[in-house]
Input
Amino acid sequence: MMPIKRNILLNPGPSTTKDSVKYAQLVPDICPREKEFASLMKGLREDLVKIVHGNLEKYTSVLFCGSGTLNIDVCLNSLLPEDKKILVINNGAYSTRAVEICQYYGLPYIELKYPVDKLPNLSEVEKTLLENADIAVVYTTHNETGTGILNPVREIGELAHRYGAIFITDTTSTYAMRPIDIEKDNIDFCMASAQKGLMAFTGLSFVVGNKAVIEKSKYYPKRSYYCNLWLQYDFFERTGEMHFTPPVQTIYATIQAIKEYWAEGEQAKWARHTRVFNAINKGLDELGFKQVIKPEWRAGLVSSAIYPDDSNWSFEAIHDYCYERGFTIYPGKISTTNTFRLCALGAIDEQDIVDFFVVFREALEKTNVAIPVQYNA
Ligand SMILES: *Cc1c(COP(=O)(O)O)cnc(C)c1O
Output
């Protein structure tokens, strides 16, 4: 195998991949309607459930062709019974996206909105459930990738179940990184796509969830054709295939990436992401950067640093300097504060972060930004 130039992606996905996964896409042409391909997808669907420790009797996974937002769309439009409401617990950009999806489909919803640097108030969540018996779905984001805050999904799921609702959580930026136990964490549906924790490529997204609920949803109002969970599940169960053309090469790459996931091991992989995350925080601290989320609330995968008050600071200039040297940094996603993000996803380790901070410090020096960086307040 010819090695491919290795870039260190510190953006929140797609993440740095290994050459073995890149090359796994180079396969003989195959029609995805062949039995050989269906059997590959069967194993893949089971592995995706096993990664979150789901019992295959109770949980299944359903594959879709598209980026991760597709999963949010699928879950919200497919899992709401007639005359019921969705409760969205929103403290960031990705739960805001869920609210927008409710608006686009005209789904009845209640939004509990919190500042992006704060955790949701669980007694308010409980009060809302108590006062609105028509809430059938509770929704939130596990790791709000815009800031890196970790939401208490196990507690939220417990509340949802106590009041007879199902719990859907967007785990796109934790799945296959931060360990998840679907049943213990009180999750009915979670989701991710191949380009994040699995360290494969964009094009394959999947929902992991409760089979009995999907079967019930057969009788729920149909609000989308391409993005209906039951339709895709039913087609898979009857034929072993995706309803429409699957992302063939991405599926081969994902299968290779999952082999490597099992070889690395859940705990060892999480320990590696944690090493990378700690190295990112150490580097930011040494340069004097302030962060948006307090340390005890961080999900351990995304650091969100605040722009210094320095007239020489230019995110663009710093980004370009790093980019030319193989490191990609990413702007923030908060409307009230200017931030940039450094993320611990992907096939990288501590040394990559040490190497990054050499380049990053040089970029600050070359652009005459004071070190340690300065803040007015
Ligand atoms: C990346 C991400 C998504 C998906 O975004 P796409 O751009 O559609 O791939 C969804 N939710 C969260 C929390 C994410 O981090």
Remarks:
- The chain has a mean pLDDT of 97.
- The domain at 266-366 is CATH 3.90.1150.10 (Aspartate Aminotransferase, domain 1).
- The CA atoms of residues 241 and 301 lie 34 Å apart.
